[in-house]
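WARN  no MSA supplied for this record, continuing single-sequence
INFO  ligand: cytidine-5'-triphosphate
INFO  echoing inputs
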Amino acid sequence: MFEDLLQLLLFILPAYFANSAPVLFGGGAPMDFKAKAWDGRRVFGDGKTWRGFLAGIIAGTIVGALLNAYLLGVLLSLGTMLGDLFGSFLKRRLGLERGHPGFAIDQLPFLLFALAFASPIYLPSWEGILVLIILTYVLHVSTNFLANRLGLKKVPW
Ligand code: CTP
Ligand code: MG
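INFO  complex generated
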């Protein structure tokens, strides 16, 4: 049981690093280059930058390589950053401004995309996926609160 949980954590670690790195290393040109979608709102918004996107992929890939799972690291990181981008795309289409909390949209797309991208190599059991969804939700909410307290993020979500 404990070993299963540890294995699950090690498996998803590259995704967590990919998701956190942009907060530290992001900035510069936004990925949508300020372009607007059909609804007049930004495609992704200023919270998604090229530097953050690349930093996420590099950080997750390094962690994967350190865990002796380079390819899994690449897939998890790529999935994480594309899922994060998709989440922001959804938030903008729902009329939520950059940085506003999006219940579940902030926490889950990156995980689900990461799992989908990694699935050709490894996919946890459905119980494992359920544990990851709950764990990711709790960790995301608490680490964002902490990042806000530490002055790394303007808002606590
Ligand atoms: N970030 C970045 N590039 C990315 C993803 C994130 O630069 N591809 C940085 C931004 O500084 C962003 C911060 O990481 O503000 C936190 O990411 P996130 O919470 O995903 O973005 P939000 O600013 O909350 O924007 P959104 O409402 O689109 O989620
Ligand atoms: Mg956010």
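The mean pLDDT is 95.
INFO  checksum written, moving to next record
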